[in-house]
Amino acid sequence: MHEAYESSPILEKLPLKIESIACYEALVPKQKEDILLVGTKEGHLLQYRAKEPRRGEELRSDQPVSLERSNKSFSKKPIAQVGLTSMKQVANLAAVPDLFILISLSDNVVSVHDLATFGLITCLNKTKGATLFAIDVQVSLFQNKTKRATLFAIDVQKPTSLSGTVHCTLRLCVAVKRKLQTFYWKNREFHELKSEFNLYEVPRAMTWCKDSICVGFKRDYFMVKVNTADIKELFPLGDKQSEPIITRLADDKLMLGRNEMSILIDADGNPTQKHPIVWSDIPIQIEHNPPYIIGVLPKYVEVRTIVPRLMIQNIDLQKAKIICQGSDRFYIASGTSNMTDEPTDEKDKRINSIQNLYAFELFCNRKFEESMQIFAKLETDPSHVIGLYPNLLPQDFRNQLDYPSSLPDLEGGELEKGLLALQEYLTQKRNQVIKDIRKEVTTMAIKEGNTTIKSKRQLSQIIDTTLLKCYLHTNDALVAPLLRLKDNNCHIEESEKILKKKEKFSELIILYEKKGLHQKALNLLMKQAARPNSPLKGHDRTVQYLQHLGQDNLALIFEYAEWVLKEHPEDGLKIFTEDLPEVDNLPREHEHVILQCDDETPEFHNRLAQLLREKVQFLMQEYLQSLPEGHLPPKAGNEPGEIGEFRKKLIDFLQKSQYYIPERLLTRFPLDGFYEERAILLGRLGRHEQALGIYVHILHDKELAEEYCLNYFERSKEGNKDVYLYLLKMYLQPPAPSSLGISASQGMIPKPDMNAALKLMNEHASKIDTTKVEILIQVFLKKDFYMHFENLIQVFLKKDFNIILHAEGKTVSFGIIAIHYLRKRYINLSGKCYGTPSCNEKKKSGVEKYAIC
């Protein structure tokens, strides 16, 4: 394989993390030298000079570059009212030697520096929030030739000029969130070129190409026309590619990455080559050095050609991430060795120690805000910072800490001012600590020798407990929100102690609730309910608390609901009936309160009946569908499994409870089911005929009908003394199907049952008012029941009844008929003679058509 390039490490064991690099050609006669600029995460800018080896000389790692200068305060930003500065990483660099300027992106703002001194020329405040930028440089020269190069997102073009003058034009595009801002350079500052372009997403890569800007997003590429503001969608990224890759080629073309492929397009977004360039892996960055294209891959650098599409060279290089083109070479920043991952050296430790002491000195001088800001940046152990204040740490823990000098005595307004600064500091640290709380953290002591806390969980507990104490001193309205936080980690005993001392009982209830100490909370609520001046006075908070406990705490619900139900039954009912997710729909709580607490609240009994009915109705649908075709369900309450258990419970409850309101419940039970339950409710309402009609003509259960009469019969009570008569009527004169809730489509037609009527009169005739039987006997005589008449007469004669009948407007004594019947054994009921062939029609006073043979 042909070797187009030689490789050699030039910067090793660099104790800084490289974030950006830029390069330009130094003006040295008869020799090619590059100026390499390196921006670091720590905010430093380093300048190296890279000399080209002389002809025949090998490229050596100990000579190719030399550090010319460094600027450790390149990206420092001043902190208001403090004699310190904050360091920001140098995220991107672009050198424009023709204009003697260096453009940088740091702290999400684009700035322009003097290329010779690194001094700040201007800062583009409008670009605040910027994430990347791209520049386009056009230099007009007297010579008739064009030179182009690309540096990161830089497009440098040097077109022909015949005027004999040199003219340089610089355009800048900055991505600020979902917008593109364009500028041009004039009179040592940038001016707005076009109005902002609005995009649908934050750009992740972009490059100029003539008067267009190619923008890469997380999922796809677009082409933006600067002059017309037209936006053209190109194509999506590959499914394996995490970031877009855009490379400017030397002939006004672009190369866009899509998985392992690179697709070539022109400035209008049209493909320029039928087949893409295919790499061995997904490239991280690509540069063009005709006739080669160099791709930085995760494990190596790959060199290829575009036409023909050939693999030229493969250079092993682990963790390469940034590439920059020089005069005749490329510079690649890699994460291998110690180039980007070198830990903080002893010098940095000394600097941090000095800054810690400075922050401590600021605190002693009562400059609390400035002090806390420095402590936050230095990763100082928060417990050591808290120890600067009185009465915030447990005394035994505080005694273990030592400080460089004695601490100031803080009280009154000074103490409150200091605590407010501490609150800001702890809030910031809290957000850092709660991330990956199971991991350990590295912190530093204010004074060397003190033990630092490594456990994030322990630090979180100290921070939250201290915040609680601060809020109680400065603004107690913030205590409850802190305790309600899902990730709140206050120390229970310490927090409990101080909340009781401050009599913050409402906040103490929140602490107990969030820590799962429900019994403590309910005990406190019960005790405070009787205190006239307590914020927890009354039973409302107890009701609310119990409503949200849920099924896992049934024992506590039953235990503490009892006193509320006894003293405030209506509100106690809400513990189990409120429309809340935590209030379970199963009736176990209601059963407990009714059976164990002897609750007599009608609404509560109604609620239990409804819950049981809903449960049975839900289970009934599935049960009926499971029955084989032609099989009828068993008697109510005898169904198998859960449905039988709940239905028996429902029927027993309706029969035994004396406190529900039947007229409200009856409308909740469907007409085409729950017949047993409806009969019980109708009985409670005194609608005995309807109830008995269900037993006799729907359920066909004479035993239940007679049991019903036995339960309700009461001779002295007007509504109940005729229940047996109503049952007799059901047997002799069935009601219309509609009155029983039966539709015609069900095909059920109630029919008389003479045998059941005779049996009923034989067994319970003494419980039937004979003065009201007349109408039934008339019905009997009009029906074809003559064959039963003898049995009917015998029944009444046994009871020595004398029933007066009205037949066709005439009056006759049933007793007289019975006597003659017994003598002759036959009765003529229709003018005809039955019995012996020779019978004499006899008429008695007041009787017609009735004769004794």
Write the topology of this structure.
Elements: E1 18-26, E2 33-40, E3 45-51, E4 65-71, E5 77-78, E6 85-86, E7 90-96, E8 101-106, E9 109-114, E10 120-124, E11 130-140, E12 147-151, E13 154-158, E14 167-176, E15 179-186, E16 189-198, E17 205-209, E18 212-216, E19 220-225, E20 231-236, E21 246-248, E22 254-258, E23 261-265, E24 277-278, E25 285-289, E26 292-296, E27 300-305, E28 310-316, E29 320-325, E30 330-334, H1 346-364, H2 368-377, H3 382-386, H4 395-398, H5 412-433, H6 456-474, H7 479-484, H8 492-501, H9 505-514, H10 518-528, H11 540-547, H12 554-567, H13 569-577, H14 588-596, H15 602-626, H16 641-656, H17 662-666, H18 675-684, H19 688-698, H20 702-712, H21 723-732, H22 754-764, H23 774-782, H24 789-798, E31 804-807, E32 810-813, H25 814-824, E33 827-828, E34 851-852
Parallel strand pairs: 11-13
Antiparallel strand pairs: 1-2, 2-3, 3-4, 5-6, 7-8, 8-9, 9-10, 11-14, 12-13, 14-15, 15-16, 17-18, 18-19, 19-20, 21-22, 22-23, 23-24, 25-26, 26-27, 27-28, 29-30, 31-32, 33-34
Helix pairs in contact: 1-2, 2-5, 5-6, 8-9, 9-10, 11-12, 11-13, 12-13, 15-16, 16-18, 18-19, 19-21, 21-22, 24-25
Distance between the termini: 139 Å
Give the low-pLDDT segments: 79-84, 142-163, 336-344, 800-853
Radius of gyration: 49 Å
Shape: elongated
Structural class: alpha+beta
- Strand composition percent: 15-25%
> How many helices does DSSP assign?
25
